[in-house]
Amino acid sequence: MTEKTVPVYAGLDISKATLQLHLQNVQYVFDNQPKGHTALLKKLRAVPGVHLVCEATGGYEQAVVTVCHAATLSVSVLNPALVRHFALAKGQRAKNDPLDAAVLTAYGEALHPEPTPAGEPARVELRALVQWRDSLKGQLAAAQQTVEHGVPAWVARQQKKLVVHLEKQLAAVRGECQAFLAQHPPLQAQVQRLETLDAVGQITAMSVLSYLPELGTLNRQTAAALAGLAPWVRQSGPWEGQRHIGGGRAAVRRALYMSAVVLTRMKNTPLGKFYTHLRAAGKPAKVALTAVMRKLLLQMNRVLKELALENLAKTESQNA
After folding, report:
1. 247: left (phi over 0), alpha (psi -120 to 50) or beta
2. For the chain, which has fewer Cβ within 10 Å, the N-terminal or C-terminal residue?
3. 3-class secondary structure, 15
């Protein structure tokens, strides 16, 4: 029998310019550039069973995590809030790169986080397209609001030009999304299956798939929790407070919101009736709307599971 290698956890604090590695109680600093990534890999490969622990840092971690996945190293990319709470629980309030790297090592040793799977290239590209579209929508809304308010004539003219430019960019990204789906039939099939649900359009389907790639593999509780749509209990002794949603992936909630609003007006649909029932029972509009969002997400999870089973059955019949 072969012995299983005990993981050696290594904390990696990532910034725009540098990588601070805490490995076996020794600190190392590398540039967050290809040369630095190569030097980091050399250091990590010298330790059997190394498991890298880092935080999601707004995208600065993506290049080094991709390199580590390509080298078949175990990497866990954590929610920074969890790591910060862990540090506070240890009584550590100070923050700098070496301290943060050491905390990440301690987090790994104490909680043994699961490795983060490597992202599928197609889903990474889909997410980039969706994020770019979301950015353009935000810029367009800001530009339109500026034009609506009293501004000097020259500023108004420039803003109107900007609005035209952004609208063209949005049209271009819509076309690129169509072309992307045509080139990736499995993702296109998932989007089309989601579009069979009431009030779910292509943009909503693409957004949810890009921000929640696990959808279709989750149970009900996990799906709701990952989207931040699970109401958390607030209770102590005889006191019971009001439940609130929180945490999770806000981008998923934003993607679901408008579909849920449309569903509240579709009185003859199951979710429209569900909303009406909740309001008649005295639930506030926001609470009822959140419940509709949660139900819609669970419907999406279910239909993607059904699609996966259909594809599996089709593959098995072809191989038989």
Report:
1. left
2. N
3. coil
Phi/psi-derived region of residue 155, left when phi > 0, alpha when psi is between -120 and 50, beta in every other case: alpha
pLDDT for residue 320: 73
Label residue 181 by pLDDT band (50, 70, 90).
very high
pLDDT over 90 (residue 233): no
Global pTM reads 0.83
Q: Mind listing the pLDDT tens digit for each residue in 69-93?
A: 999 999 999 999 999 999 999 999 9
Query: For the domain 8-111, what is the CATH superfamily, name and number?
Result: ATPase, nucleotide binding domain (3.30.420.40)
Instruction: Using pLDDT thresholds of 50, 70 and 90, give the confidence band for residue 1.
Output: very low
Determine the Cα–Cα distance for residues 108 and 227; give it in Å rounded to an integer: 24
Burial (0-12, 13-18, 19+ Cβ within 10 Å), 141: exposed
Residues forming beta bridges with residue 198, ordered by sequence position: none
Asked if 173 and 136 count as a contact pair (C-beta separation under 8 A), the reply is: yes
Distances (CA, A) of 169 to 38, 130, 210: 37, 13, 20
Give Cβ neighbours of residue 115 (< 8 Å, ≥ 6 apart): 51, 74, 75, 76
Distances (CA, A) of 170 to 21, 133, 182, 304, 307: 41, 6, 19, 28, 30
Residue 277 CB partners (closer than 8 Å, separation 6+): none
